[in-house]
Amino acid sequence: MADMNDTLRSFAGLDLLASTVLLLDEELAVRYVNPAGENLLAVSLRTVAGKPLAAVCACPATLRAAFDNALDNSWGYTGQNIELKRSDGELLHVNCTVTALRQDMAENVRLLVELQPMEHQLAATREEHLIEQQKASRELIRNLAHEIKNPLGGIRGAAQLLEHELNNPSLKEYTQVIIKEADRLQNLMKRLLTSHRTMLPTTVNIHEILERVRSLLTSEFRGSLAMRRDYDTSLPEIVGDREQLIQAFLNVARNAAQAMHGEGEIVLRTRVLRQVTLAKKRYRLALEIKVVDNGPGIPEAVRETMFYPLVSGREGGSGLGLTIAQNFVQHHHGTIDCASRPGETVFTIRLPVEQA
């Protein structure tokens, strides 16, 4: 244990890295894994310290040969698109660097292995591109909403005046159509502008917010909709706008329920993440909330644009629910993304835990 503590003190700075770092001894036993590695490999340092690397993940022959060359000849190695298999069976595609360390750097540590998940690099680029596109789209929609709102009021007022002047009651049916449609459009404009209101931050418990969402949906979809909890009750509180967060999670979960026509199962899952990067900023802790449903999945035609305003994969949908959810999540410096296939759709929301 003393050797392990010395190793950790020697490489304490590795805790702050976004990439996965493993320290191995001559027998390829794990001496250290940083928090990013714990997240990627779904392990904890406490449980894998001293165990062979093979117990953590299965490596291809090329990588095992690179370990041998680094130990025998101090040769470095860099590999692209290396496939690793985690102990739980999940496949990972990573870029890998192996570096041989001098024996005097840290006792019982001979190799430094750095792993960069390829999907993380692609996701970061995609996220940056989407954020810029969505900013421009939101600004355009907001300006259009302002421009449309005032003429709608005039149209509605004119229809009301016209209705009072009509002597034939049967003609009032047409003015009522104008008034009702103007009201509907004004409500739509109001929803488009609501997501820009000022935040009212306070200390909130994410599980209280999810329980509120669960209560609302079970009341709205009585019968065969099952709402299951999978909570990590040790999660810390965060600073955020309670109403915005409720609305964000409600929009996501309600979309799932509506896609399943109120039948099926929705799982609300919470976990804690350490040393994560959200919207280009590094955080020591973050909350990860998944909304999982077993519905038909999101149509492939709208997967790339599902967060854009007025885009809906459901007949009769307004196309604003996910846009507003994304806006509110971004107000909290978080991220939201989605993976979908028939039988399983997963919305993943990550929110930083900042010091109050």
CATH level 1 class label of the largest domain: Alpha Beta
What topology, given as strand order, has the largest sheet? Answer: 2-1-6-5-4-3
Supply the helix-strand structural class. alpha+beta
Which whole number gives the mean pLDDT? 82
Instruction: Return Rg in Å.
Output: 26 Å
The CATH fourth-level homologous superfamily of the largest domain: Histidine kinase-like ATPase, C-terminal domain
- Name the helicity range: 40-55%
SSE topology sketch:
Layout: H1 2-10, E1 20-24, E2 30-33, H2 35-41, H3 45-48, E3 57-58, H4 61-73, E4 77-86, E5 91-100, E6 111-117, H5 118-165, H6 172-194, E7 201-204, H7 206-220, E8 225-230, E9 238-241, H8 242-259, E10 264-278, E11 281-293, H9 321-331, E12 335-341, E13 344-352
Parallel strand pairs: 8-10
Antiparallel strand pairs: 1-2, 1-6, 3-4, 4-5, 5-6, 7-9, 10-11, 11-13, 12-13
Helix pairs in contact: 5-6, 7-8, 8-9
Structure characterization notes:
The protein has two domains: 2-117, Beta-Lactamase; 198-356, 2-Layer Sandwich (Heat Shock Protein 90), CATH 3.30.565.10. It has helices at 2-10, 35-41, 45-48, 61-73, 118-165, 172-194, 206-220, 242-259, 321-331, and strands spanning 20-24, 30-33, 57-58, 77-86, 91-100, 111-117, 201-204, 225-230, 238-241, 264-278, 281-293, 335-341, 344-352. It is elongated and about 100 Å long. It is of the alpha+beta class and 356 residues long.
Brief sketch in words of this structure:
The chain has about 350 residues and is of the alpha+beta class.
Task: Give me some keywords for this one.
13 strands; Heat Shock Protein 90; Beta-Lactamase; 2 domains; 356 residues; alpha+beta; 6-stranded antiparallel sheet; 9 helices
